[in-house]
Amino acid sequence: MKTKDIQPINEKGERHGYWEYYYYNGQLWYKGNFVDGYEHGYWEHYHYNGQLWFKGNYVDGNRHGYWEEYYPNGQLKSKIYYI
């Protein structure tokens, strides 16, 4: 895993703000925002081949609402609602 060169953190040293992570082949792995060290808001995760894998929202580090999962070929695999 590689991370974006800019890795915003807050005064407590926690991840805070927009982050991107990359596979070693240069493809985007996942992207989204952190708030005080927790995933918060909309996130997207990608397969190694660059196809979308998951997408959905986090609230304080927990999945919330509808999340969609995709096969490596881009076809929808599942849609789950998290509370």
Overview of this protein structure:
This protein is an all-beta fold. The chain has a single domain (2-82), classed as Histone H3 K4-specific methyltransferase SET7/9 N-terminal domain (Single Sheet). It contains no helices and 8 strands.
Shape: flat
Strand tally, please? 8
In CATH, the architecture is Single Sheet
| Global mean pLDDT | 91
Helix content: under 10%
How can the largest sheet be summarized? 8 strands, antiparallel
Q: In angstroms, what separates the terminal alpha carbons?
A: 29 Å
Order of helices and strands: EEEEEEEE
CATH topology: Histone H3 K4-specific methyltransferase SET7/9 N-terminal domain
Global Rg: 13 Å
> How large is the share of residues in beta strands?
over 45%
The number of domains: 1
> Tell me, what is the CATH class?
Mainly Beta
- Secondary structural class: mainly beta
Low-pLDDT runs of 5+ residues are none
Number of helical stretches of at least 4 residues: 0
